[in-house]
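Hey all, quick one. A colleague (J.T.) asked me to put the magnesium ion job into the tracker so the inputs and the structure tokens live in one place instead of scattered across chat threads. No bug as far as I know, just bookkeeping. Sequence used:
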Amino acid sequence: MTGQLRLDDYLQRYSETAPEALAVAVAVDAIATAAIEIADLTGTGQLSDASGLTTGCNSDGDLQRDLDVRADAILRRCLGKAPIAALASEEMREPQIVDRAAKICVAIDPLDGSSNIDINMTVGTIFSILPAPDDLGTAFHQRGSAQLAAGFVTYGPQTSLVLTLGDGVDVFTLDRARSFRMARRGVQIPETADEFAINASNRRHWDAPVRAFVDECLAGVDGPANRNFNMRWVASLVAEAYRILTRGGVFLYPSDARPGYGDGRLRLTYEAHPMAFIMEQAGAAASTGRERILDLAAHNLHQRVPLIMGSQHEVRRVEELHCDPLLVASVSAPLFARRGFFRL
Ligand SMILES: O=P(O)(O)OC[C@H]1O[C@](O)(COP(=O)(O)O)[C@@H](O)[C@@H]1O
Ligand SMILES: [Mg+2]
Ligand SMILES: [Mg+2]
């Protein structure tokens, strides 16, 4: 039964399967240990000495909360015991070289969705594990397809760890005895789903293909999609990904015309790459709208990228709209709307 399998037993079995597998297993175990500590901090809110208040800016100019800093410190302490060649974090300006003889590198977003901390909504930790190249200066400039493992933890009603080791996606939930146990094995995302997520307050800044896609969703049975959609926006990538892993759907954080958002908001190395690996391993897709996310390699650590991820059918439709201006025009033309001039 899935509920009986403990994460440490699962990692023990995996550690015997490939040359780097032991290092990957130790790193995932260290992240899981850190996650229990972070769950305690986020779970006690103002009762703990971590307030969730803004303390400054990180190297990328984002507001940094005290819990961002605390989560980063906890993860770095726990990962300090794992055999890691280089470590990168959203909260660090540059990657840190740890052990040149080690075989893997780890990139982390210690606390994702941090605007949700003080309002008691789900936040999380995201991680990506890569092979260590000979030149460690290139460790975080590899394509996403090079990842050995990726995952994220949600600190919400449940603390759950979503993990891919390159052979499907499994979910482990923290039980009351403080150990992660398998809750879902071999997660598969539905190919089509009727739910989309985007921060609609940016509508006036979007490019035409994104506007066309959202217009199709909003038009529902009266438009070209010919079915009604539901909408969500949690402003927490981990929560949106978990929802998609549970019931499908599509998430969009596209590029837009606001200053600084020409490549969207999310970071390639420690947000989009791991999410894309998880999506593909669960039978879904992740794209910029023009390119597969896993084909991209970052030229700098904090590089941003438009991210469209989720059910195959919806991600492909967004890609179609990006490739074909005539299609965008036809979606936007009221003449072709179901209840337009030609379709009463
Ligand atoms: O506030 P916005 O622009 O809607 O952005 C929300 C997005 O930003 C993020 O919070 C960025 O991650 P961080 O909190 O790690 O900076 C995502 O989790 C979320 O999808
Ligand atoms: Mg994040
Ligand atoms: Mg973060």
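Adding what we noticed when we looked at it: The mean pLDDT is 93. The two ends are 54 Å apart (CA to CA).
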